[in-house]
TrEMBL record:
Domain HTH marR-type: 1-111
InterPro entries: HTH_MarR-typ, MarR/SlyA-like, WH-like_DNA-bd_sf, WH_DNA-bd_sf
Name of the protein: Transcription regulator
SMART domains linked to this entry: HTH_MARR
Tree of life domain: Bacteria
Residue stretches spanning the membrane: none
GO terms of biological process kind: response to stress
UniProt KW keywords: DNA-binding, Transcription, Transcription regulation
GO molecular function: DNA binding; DNA-binding transcription factor activity
Record-linked SUPFAM superfamilies: Winged helix' DNA-binding domain
Amino acid sequence: MNLTHPQFVILASLAYLSQDSDEVTQVMISKLSGIDVMTVSQILSLLEKHDFVKRKEHSRDTRAKAVILNKKGEEILQKAVPLIEQIDEIFFKKLDTDEEQFKHFLVRLNEE
């Protein structure tokens, strides 16, 4: 898929913020994703080169850029989200199994 985890987080944050706002800024993405503004800027530059996003002048804030998710960015997100969900399910299922085993051992230790 050729998409890093931070790139996915930025794209997903942008998609989420775009539902409620016409003009999403880097600062908004930074706050939601927990990634500092400079790193968000660097990742957006790379995503822009791959034509996943576009930046344009913000209509109300001349210091800010509005970030827009392109069609290609939407398509990669549609492919990535089910894959991420599948990976999460496998990972957390394993944790649940490990947790149950751990609890079982604690009970046995407590009984002795």
